[in-house]
Amino acid sequence: MLDELYAKVNPGPPKPSEIYQPSVFSMPAGTERYVVEVCGAVLVPVETGDQITVINDEGGQPCEFIAVDKKGKIDASIIGQSTNSEAQGLKALLLGSDQSLRGLRMGLDARNIDLGKAGAITFFDSTTPAKTEVTFRAERDGSVIVAAPHPNARGAMDYETQDTATPLVVMIKRAVIKQAAKFELPDPLANPLDEIRVHTQTAESFFVKAGDYIQIIDVDGRQCTDFECFSARKLDKGIEHALDVTTTRTLMGHAYPMPGLHAKYYDQEMLPLVEVVQDTCGRHDAFALACSAKYYDDIGYPGHVNCSDNFNTALSKFGVSGRPGWMAINFFFNTAIDDHGVMYGDEPWSRPGDYVLLRALTDLVCVSSACPDDTTAANGWNPTDIHVRTYSGVETFQRSIAFRATPESEPKMTKQTGFHDSFAKHTRNFIEYNGYWLANCFAEAGPIEEYHAAREKCVIMDLSPLRKFEITGPDAEALCQYIFTRNMKTLPIGGVVYTTMCYEHGGMIDDGTVFRLAKDNFRWIGGNDYGGEWMREQAEKLGLKVLVRSSTDQLHNVAVQGPESRDLLNKIVWTAPHNPKFDQLGWFRFTPARLNNEMGTPFVVSRTGYTGELGYEVMCHPKDCAEIFDAIWAAGKEHDIKPLGLEALDMLRIEAGLIFADYEFSDQTDPFEAGIGFTCPLKSKPDDFIGRDALIRRKENPMRKLVGLDIDSNVDVTHGDCIHIGRAKIGEICSSMRSPLLGKNIAMARVDVAHCEPGTVLEIGKLDGHQKRLPAVIRPDLAAYDPTKSKPRS
Asked: SS3 letters for 165-186?
């Protein structure tokens, strides 16, 4: 009997574990993938027989393809083709100042490629469907350049035709698979001063001058590297003060520094040694020591090679004394501490070519290892190499952190918005938000004064990180009607509607606004990139004739909010006779406009906002942002205009009962639980949409409700704090703030429907949730400020 049962449970030899992971780790040997970013280009060497496929990822994006022989001569016959145009788009890109093309310029110079009279093969146009492919085969050795220029000569999207630029994808299938490193090193960020290979299970030491840069690269992905450094001047005096992670954590207030305000590493005397400038991984460890002989001895691997002994060997040439275990910053090491205080680890997040870029703040002696741990998942069970490059301090690298919209997406580095320089005149306090640097608060005023300016006068704020997508084509309305919860068929041209997108189970993907520009032209403005990916997936499943293209980089925007915002903008906004006059613009309406007069700079203005006040949003191309800002600022001086940062914005939106992703909603929250059930007109919208059946069921059987709380305590309350009635936990805090207007703490919270009635007395748990409680009561309305929205309607 047991034998029969065992045979059913174990029918044969063991099978490998099924693991889903990004395709970069599972692409066939000899296959390479490159992404040509918006208004960008890539250069790829090719050899005879290589297959080159260009994919129009989002659709509607023209491509310029240039083939070059081994001597640097433009020659389309390398791929068996002839040119059909000049490479005007690529030339225009290279004449610009975009730092992301620095690697391409270096590649052109290294191969003596002169693009002065370059001919190109052009293909794809504004009507090309998403995922369309064109394939070539290399007939001789050489290189190919693939560019994604802007579709129009102006280099800026026309807000009415929506001719945005989008990425291309290049797939290379090599004819000859070389048994070398699994992944090639990424191109240098600039001309390197030094190239240092740290072979697997070893360490290397090196000297770096103050001001120079250190790039630490994970070559094959999933590989940790321990890094230490010393002030060279202190070493000259016999003082061996290494980078100290405990001092660093204390001074920075973070588990480990990241690019931005809290970016420096210190030694034990609080001397700053290095600053983190760029990071494409975002997950490291600053708690554990570098692995040591004792660590391996204790887990049953005596004599195992280790980073601490490798450090000792590598540093001996600089006269540094050995240690049994080295404190270090463990780049790419994926650790965390659970609720019980236990530190645990897993495979690194890093992928092939991921890196950390540091800047030396004093002359340094450095050491980097390629961790040898093959006994745990710390290096993906397969230790590999690390590569170090150093660059001159005369180079300029923008502070940035990489993010990916999906596991398959290429990393995108934090950018400055088109309005960044204008706001930077008023503050240095910028933080990373959704892939961009945004002002947190401003030096002259501060969050409280900025808040009052929004409530009493007017403010201007950068909201460029909002994601924009152009939805165009004969089936645009059909797609919008199916993916959004609001009724798109009743949305007029020039209208804006606040809506949600939901999964089949009713959980929210995102909230945002839909603009209708024409019969078959829509624009979605939401909070994340995945919304665009998801919309394209639905269009493809349904076989709809529609393009969904990102325009985030073509359309940056500021919010002008406050009681005097209408009077301010009325001075500088001109609209065409067939569009509404600015002072006729109703709530949730928009219009194309120009600055001052018919020949002025174009932009789009909408009567929308996120403050609970009368307000507008002004959208323009990044190249026009400085001019638009200056015009608003000059006109706003009579209204005591002030810049507004994220801290003050959070106060305004919480007071007004406006929700925020990952606080008031997630993919486990439906619109009814998020307090925006009005976005789901289940009776008045007759057509089906994604999630409709689940939302009907969830509306009829609610479990939780978003409510407003008045808190009878000045103790700070934070997101995630538990809410109790007696011993039982019945909810949690979503967002909270101390209201300057009301003079008390308020919050939005999600509670069980059994305890959601206005007037219900609750207790907010602090510490462990029981040792300290704060009394609170449910308000009649979610919004503590103007619950009827009379201010923005006015």
From this structure: CCCEEEEEECCCCCCCCCCCCC
